[in-house]
């Protein structure tokens, strides 16, 4: 159907005034903003002497609750990997840096588990999409921000390294969603216990 004449809006290029043409007011406004920031409180930290976790959040400190650092693979109440190899995280990952090989699970409470689970931490952009996509709360990003390696291989985090990361960080960052812990346990009891831990952790922030 042809567009009606009355629906056509003609957009004219705006005419610049004299002051807009010489850019001087814009330059002065920019400088004023710069000067304003010179006298504001500095948030730059002299790392590694001073670390973000030692500084209060309003002063530029690290907010561990939602910081997106190194990944971990969560364990269930029996110490098994929580992941069910559904590939949702790998599908959601915009950097295509998650590689999973799934197989039939050796346990009766789930169909699949990951035989291999590797994240290329150098390709990752730490967007957190994998964490949001996971239906069983198996993958999470932790407040660990200073991981280094001397080779690319060292920055490839396999299942063992990611599970190890769970043990290292569970005290500084409780499970995000305590309702999904284990597959055959008493959800209610565990949920209450985990909710208390999360609330205590959030109060400390
Ligand atoms: S944080 Fe983003 S880029 Fe990194 S593995 Fe997860 S989805 Fe991929
Ligand atoms: S980590 Fe979560 S989203 Fe990724 S494969 Fe395992 S269960 Fe699925």
Describe this structure in words.
The chain has 205 residues and is an alpha+beta fold. The chain is extended, with a radius of gyration of 25 Å. The strands form two sheets. A three-stranded antiparallel sheet has the order 2-3-5. The protein has a two-stranded antiparallel sheet with strand order 1-4. It has six helices and five strands; from the N terminus they run ααβαββαββαα. It has a domain at 71-204: Alpha-Beta Plaits (2-Layer Sandwich). Bound molecules: iron/sulfur cluster (2 copies). Residues 83-89, 100, 133-134, 136, 138-139 line the site of one iron/sulfur cluster.
What topology does this entry show?
Blueprint: H1 18-22, H2 24-38, E1 71-73, H3 88-92, E2 98-104, E3 112-120, H4 129-133, E4 139-141, E5 156-157, H5 159-169, H6 187-204
Antiparallel strand pairs: 1-4, 2-3, 3-5
Bound molecules: iron/sulfur cluster (2 copies).
Under the CATH scheme, the architecture of the domain at 71-204 is 2-Layer Sandwich
Bound molecules: iron/sulfur cluster
* Low-pLDDT sequence parts: 179-185
Please count the helical segments.
Answer: 6
- The CATH topology of the domain at 71-204 is given as Alpha-Beta Plaits
- Strand order of the biggest β-sheet: 2-3-5
Give the overall shape, derived from the CA principal axes.
extended
Helix/strand-derived category reads alpha+beta
Helix content: 25-40%
Q: Averaged pLDDT, please? A: 88
The CATH first-level class of the domain at 71-204 comes to: Alpha Beta
Largest sheet: 3 strands, antiparallel
In angstroms, what is the radius of gyration? 25 Å
E-strand count: 5
